[in-house]
């Protein structure tokens, strides 16, 4: 297919993308082909984690979400699940609400939480806003 990037090149590309550069700019700065950067950009979903960044402990990581799905499938309560994961029950409740499938109501550990239109149940989410008619009624004549 194509050549593989060294760890140093990959880190440079990801650092540039994390800094807000678009793939064309990154290609010019790093010397890596734009097609390779676009493939990487699409494979990562356009989300980059800068080096040394850690996410808040308030949210579950991927492994914890998979464990949450297994425990809930096994029939454990939210409190029992939270105790096994070592988090508060409200954290489990929020994760279940944030990453549920709108049509089936089933928790999905791979859900794109917080994305507009992901159906995360948030009525203020831009993707869940109802479509309203803009036509005005005429005042009779």
Q: What attributes does this structure have?
A:
141 residues; Arc Repressor Mutant, subunit A; 2 domains; 43% helix
What does this structure look like?
This protein is mostly helical and 141 residues long. The protein folds into 2 domains: 1-54; 56-112, Arc Repressor Mutant, subunit A, CATH 1.10.10. Helices cover 43% and strands 0% of the residues. It has helices at 7-18, 23-30, 34-43, 62-73, 78-85, 89-98. It is elongated, with a radius of gyration of 21 Å. The termini are far apart. The relative contact order is 0.08. The model is unreliable at 114-136 (pLDDT under 50).
Brief sketch in words of this structure:
This protein has helices at residues 7-18, 23-30, 34-43, 62-73, 78-85, 89-98.
CATH fold topology of the largest domain: Arc Repressor Mutant, subunit A
The assigned structural class equals: mainly alpha
Give the tally of structural domains: 2
Portion in beta strands: under 5%
Question: What kind of oligomer do you see?
Answer: single chain
Mean pLDDT figure? 76
Largest sheet: none
Poorly predicted parts: 114-136
**CATH level 1 name of the largest domain:** Mainly Alpha
Helix content: 40-55%
Gyration radius over CA: 21 Å
Distance between the termini: 71 Å
- The number of helices is 6
**Beta-strand segment tally:** 0
